[in-house]
Amino acid sequence: MEIHYFRWLSSSIGSFYYGRTFFFDGNSLLKQQERKMTENKNYYKKKLILFLFIITTIFGLLSLFGYYSVKIQDPLQLLSAVLYGTIKLFLFVSPISPEEKTPFIYEFAKWAAPILTSAFIFTQISNVLLHVKNVLVNRLSAKHVLFFGNSEMGELLIGNLQKEKNYKISLVTKDFLDERVKNKYEKKGIACYQLDFEKSDKNEIKELFSALNISKAKYIFFCGESDLENFSLYANVIQRIKPQKSISTYVHCESGTVAGYMEELLKEERKKEESLKKLDSLHFNQKDLTVRLIMEDELVKKSIFRSLTGLSDIGSDTSPAISSYKESDISPAISSYKESDISPATSSATCLATSSTIPSSVPSVTSEAKDLSVKNMDEAIRPPHILLFGINDLSLPLIKQLANDATLSLRKNTRLTLIGDVASRNPDIQNPNQEVDMQKVDMQSMAPMTSLKRALEIDCLDLGSSTEEWKQQENLRQYLKSIREESAPLLIFLMHQDVIQNLKALNLINRYFEKLPKIIRNVSKVDLTKLLPKNEGRIRSFGDLSEIMTGRVIIREELDKRAKAFNKSYNQASSIAGMGEGTSWNELSYVKKTSSRQSASHAAIKEEILKTVFKGKSSQELRTYLKEKFEEFARLQDLQKKSKEVFQKEFRAFLKENPVLDFLSRLEHKRWCNSYYAMGFRYGEKKDESRKTHPCLIEDWEMVIGEKFDICHPEYDLLSVFTLFQEER
């Protein structure tokens, strides 16, 4: 019965799904229907006008032929009179005197022709006036957003930006827009321009930039049809623009190589034009945006937060004002742990067979209250076990983000089990040293996996593409059964591109983990709402491109506020330490910007830790607590001017007196390491972003806070903690 059901479902979805590359769901179907209805309305309106024009012309020709044929004998003169008279009808001039008796068809043409002409003139004038209005309003607006390039993705983003914050938008395309499309944009307040940089002279470009007031724009988006087109647009703009204020640019770019070229280009152009330092540049692609949307979902966040519930038994009566513990309370394993202390699964992933012994879960925390210490806090946290079903284009971006956002404990990494055709797609997950058929391997996806194994405990259940389907199902069933008791997952991702495979897996998973949160990928145009079981909000379906292409996901203002706040604190600390003024946000390398943004992304974890440990305390109270501690720390920073040795000694004492801050600082350093591992970095004596080496990729905190203090500057890890619970500005 189940097989027949899925066969039917497969055939119904297949007609919509196969061959598609974009993500859609039921909501987009409604939007598409509404858009289609509007388009049909405009289509039939045009057809009606064309029909009236033809009828009017025919009636004019026939009536005038009947009138002039009795007066003019010469055929050529007759034809000229008829045609000329018909044209005069459309020019508000009657070729026949009103006193003369005329047929009905002439009377119809006499009135219809000038009405059609008037309507045309009025439409053209109104279009011109509308464009002028849009140009002036947009030019003067503080919320002016520019779009270069026209694509489906850009169109969705334009619509969402208007809905979100009523941005004033101008669109520049290299090709002429269809009149209907252009009118649609202009009526929505979007000023449209046509310009091809490659075919235009410098004066035309200068006039366009002047009309756009480009130097005062708020955001600039590059959303052409391809990476190379966006690179060309980006280059032509930044080589001519002289920003008068801070401008953020967002470039759609799927290729990391092309994105790197853009960064190099901007770096070189800044040497020629000082004002380009006011320009911030960010690249985005569909996969990363999708992962960001998933990780920001409340269901995902709450699932990860469940790992922190054990902290409620730590210092049950503790308030922010009580913050002292003894050095002896710190476990030697915590205060000085080495790489060898980390679970072997952290540095070398384990591939599971269905018959393999499943690692036991982390022991649960007792309900008995414990003293507030780094050791007890770390032991109270139980990193989650996450299942990821389906190995495909979204797998690696998701794993990279989990390496950052799911950093919860100092010694215990989040466990991630990959389920699917693992070996053929990512052979180094299973065995980094095995011989691989390079024709079958995505090298870009392989590269970061070795370093990612240091950030996550990666297991794999290789179902194998060549294995019969019934056998794959049985292997999966056996695995789910084996982990049900001892190492049950907290969160399940169903990421297969084949929606049917996701539904089959969901059906099987629900037999063992019905109440667990599940995130299911739906790349079909079919609304799965009625197909999915009643879940009480425990299942999320994602994949709609319109959900991804939003200002909230791409611009991410709140995230960048946190990231910039941390960079500002970093620069202030650097200045106090006598290491220079630091680097402004816009001048940071892309790696450092990404690192700051990842720190901001992890802030939710740190805030949840504080709220759990200091239970009952409001965000305002915790904000006050952090402010007071920052003032204490700021006084310590002044010691650097006198003696670095004294500052380092007092800094270590400060952390010992504040165990929560100590733990969060350690956790931030571990998160920072994990985020760099996700970017493919490794330890090296010299910091080199091109070679992806960094001397601070050290997991031994005692080394960081001791002999490597001057190199790694652990005070920066603490600074990120002081940016928590920032008030919205």
Main sheet overview = 7 strands, parallel
> How much helix, percentage-wise, in residues?
40-55%
CATH level-3 fold name of the largest domain:
Rossmann fold
Q: Estimate the mean pLDDT confidence.
A: 81
Determine and state the CATH class of the largest domain: Alpha Beta
Total domain modules: 4
Broad structural category: alpha/beta
The CATH homologous superfamily name of the largest domain equals NAD(P)-binding Rossmann-like Domain
What Rg do the Cα atoms give?
Answer: 33 Å
The assigned CATH architecture of the largest domain is: 3-Layer(aba) Sandwich
Classify the beta-strand content into a percent band.
5-15%
Give the overall form. Answer: elongated
Query: In angstroms, what separates the terminal alpha carbons?
Result: 58 Å
Strand order of the largest sheet: 7-10-9-8-11-12-13
- Enumerate how many helices there are, as a single number: 31
Structural features, described:
The chain is an alpha/beta fold. Helix 24 runs antiparallel to helix 31. Strand 2 (about 170-175), helix 6 (about 180-185) and strand 3 (about 190-195) form a beta-alpha-beta unit. The strands form three sheets. The protein has a seven-stranded parallel β-sheet. About 55% of the residues lie in helices and about 10% in strands. Mean pLDDT is about 80; it is low at about 1-30, about 320-370 and about 425-445. It has four domains: about 25-125; about 140-285, Rossmann fold (3-Layer(aba) Sandwich); about 290-555, NAD(P)-binding Rossmann-like Domain (Rossmann fold, 3-Layer(aba) Sandwich), CATH 3.40.50; about 555-720, no CATH class.
